[in-house]
Amino acid sequence: LNAAVRHADMVLLLHEGRVLEVGPPGQVLTPVNVRRVFQVEVSVLDRPGGQPAWIAPVAVSAPAPAWPANC
What we know:
Number of helices: 3
Radius of gyration: 14 Å
Mean pLDDT: 85
Number of strands: 4
Oligomer: single chain
Helix content: 25-40%
Structural class: alpha+beta
Strand order of the largest sheet: 1-2
């Protein structure tokens, strides 16, 4: 995600096989969209001018999957 934030002019974010949003990284890679798609709470750090510079994970918002009993 951080490579897209720094280098892409446009990104396409998929969720469950469908397009969730298309546009500039700052519009698409929001904390709400990242949480919805990846189940991770993030903070988006901006550079001067308001463009995103870094997406930093803060917490996992969904419980980790249980290990199968045979592991």
